[in-house]
């Protein structure tokens, strides 16, 4: 079995067994200075202070094992980020809408003119599964370069039975062919197709009677999602779809309260959603509902940045005792970037989160928003060894501080105990 020893680590983050961090506890990032980390096979075997390394090594039979040593002097080592909300299976970009937006059109106005999600749907329907797979694989590699080791990927640009399944088959291939931990979500209720303009109920029936059963029969979906917001799907429609999903064993992770106080948070919590995501329009009432739930509030600051809409009240949420996760929402319309490092900077600057809170939100809380907290998100013995090593930096606060960095901040990424990024190059 392979053995990797990372030694002389300047600071090891999340060095503890934890399943999520909420409220005041988000200020603690479990930092251990002058540390080592031992990886055996796919898993974290041990970690601790450098002073304790000889004892840890004595416990291992080194003569039988090939040992790779990495000197992490001056570097920060962290569990990889878990990006719990993305739409990275898509065809073509939407920079023409970017220009419309600069000229003053809102997201909803662009959508009403046949732009937005319907524009991406047209392009996706014309693309082959292979073309979509190659493009999405490139995005997965790019995201690994930013230190991401787990990704949720949604459908929602297909909008026909065949095309939604085509998207989910691409996600299945990514699950099988990459070392990244991937979860897939059926988001058939992402936008109402033009052909259903005057018969919404027919589209809801199609989702309930065909898309959900077929996606589940092929083993293509882990979760079920609805864009519950003004101009998209109502609370009643959302409830109908989530109930149908539940009958087929799909738990909800939903888009809620991005464009309005839509009731999305309430309907998500009522249906025991694993997460409710976006939450730009959140007030006291919504926070109270979240406080009484196990649902992870998931914030997507690069979307608010790109759409120039108000940021969600993260400070109020955390100060009320809630946990929050952050994710990239990587998609061609509202967040054309999978750069979690930039998301951390936005979380600090505009969500007013402390660096420790932002790092918790992107690691252990992101893992929890994917139900992966028992195997990922912290440095605990027995968890899967998904970790990144930065270039030499002055402190972990440098990560969100140095905004606009590309993946060059991250020197090495290890996924399932294998080095997949070294000296800036991702390969798998
Ligand atoms: N808000 C809904 N869905 C995506 C945007 C999709 C698009 O504009 O293509 C989001 O999460 O931001
Ligand atoms: Zn989204």
TrEMBL record:
Cofactor mode of binding and number, as noted: Binds 1 zinc or iron ion per subunit.
Amidohydrolase-related domain location: 76-420
Binding sites annotated in the UniProt record for 4-imidazolone-5-propanoate: 94, 157, 190, 258, 334
InterPro entries to which the protein is assigned, alphabetical: Amidohydro-rel, HutI, Metal-dep_hydrolase_composite, Metal_Hydrolase
Record GO terms (molecular function): imidazolonepropionase activity; iron ion binding; zinc ion binding
Keyword flag Hydrolase: yes
Binding annotation for Fe(3+): 85, 87, 255, 329
Subcellular location: Cytoplasm
Primary localization class, coarse: cytoplasm
Enzyme class, broadest EC rank: hydrolase
Membrane-traversing stretches: none
Gene Ontology terms: cellular component: cytoplasm
Family the UniProt entry places it in: Belongs to the metallo-dependent hydrolases superfamily. HutI family.
Protein name: Imidazolonepropionase
Native source species: Flexibacter flexilis DSM 6793
């Amino acid at each position: 079995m392979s053995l990797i020893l990372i030694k002389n680590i300047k600071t090891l983050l999340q060095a503890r067994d934890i399943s999520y961090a909420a409220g005041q506890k988000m200020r603690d990032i479990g930092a251990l200075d002058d540390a080592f980390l031992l990886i055996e096979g796919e898993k974290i075997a041990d970690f601790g202070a450098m002073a304790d390394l000889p004892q840890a090594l004595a416990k291992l039979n080194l003569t039988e094992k090939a040992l790779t040593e990495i000197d992490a002097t001056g570097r920060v080592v962290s569990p990889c980020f878990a990006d719990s909300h993305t739409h990275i299976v898509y065809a073509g970009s939407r920079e023409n809408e970017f220009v419309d937006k600069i000229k003053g059109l809102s997201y909803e106005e662009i959508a009403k003119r046949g732009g937005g999600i319907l524009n991406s749907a047209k392009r996706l329907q014309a693309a082959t599964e292979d073309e979509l797979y190659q493009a999405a694989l490139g995005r997965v590699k790019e995201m690994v370069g930013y230190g991401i080791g787990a990704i949720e990927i949604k459908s929602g640009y297909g909008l026909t039975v065949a095309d939604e399944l085509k998207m989910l088959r691409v996600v299945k291939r990514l699950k099988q062919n990459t070392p990244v931990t991937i979860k897939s979500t059926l988001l058939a209720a992402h936008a109402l197709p033009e052909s259903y303009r005057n018969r919404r109920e027919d589209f809801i029936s199609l989702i309930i009677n065909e898309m959900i059963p077929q996606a589940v029969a092929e083993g293509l979906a882990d979760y079920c999602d609805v864009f519950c917001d003004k101009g998209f799907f109502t609370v009643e429609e959302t409830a109908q779809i989530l109930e149908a999903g539940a009958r087929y064993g799909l738990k909800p992770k939903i888009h809620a309260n991005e464009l309005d106080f839509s009731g999305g948070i309430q309907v998500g919590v009522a249906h025991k959603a694993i997460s409710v995501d976006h939450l730009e329009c959140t007030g006291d009432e919504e926070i109270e509902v979240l406080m009484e739930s196990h649902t992870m509030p998931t914030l997507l600051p690069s979307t608010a940045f790109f759409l120039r809409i108000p940021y969600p009240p993260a400070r109020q949420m955390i100060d009320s005792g809630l946990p929050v996760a952050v994710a990239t929402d990587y998609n061609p319309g509202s967040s054309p970037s999978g750069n979690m490092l930039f998301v951390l900077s936005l979380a600090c600057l505009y969500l007013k989160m402390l660096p420790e809170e932002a790092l918790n939100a992107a690691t252990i809380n992101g893992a929890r928003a994917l139900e992966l907290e028992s195997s990922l998100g912290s440095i605990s013995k027995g968890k899967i060894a998904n970790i990144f090593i930065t270039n030499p930096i002055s402190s972990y606060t440098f990560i969100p501080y140095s905004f606009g960095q590309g993946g060059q901040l991250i020197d090495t990424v290890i996924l399932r105990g294998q080095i997949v990024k070294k000296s800036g190059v991702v390969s798998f």
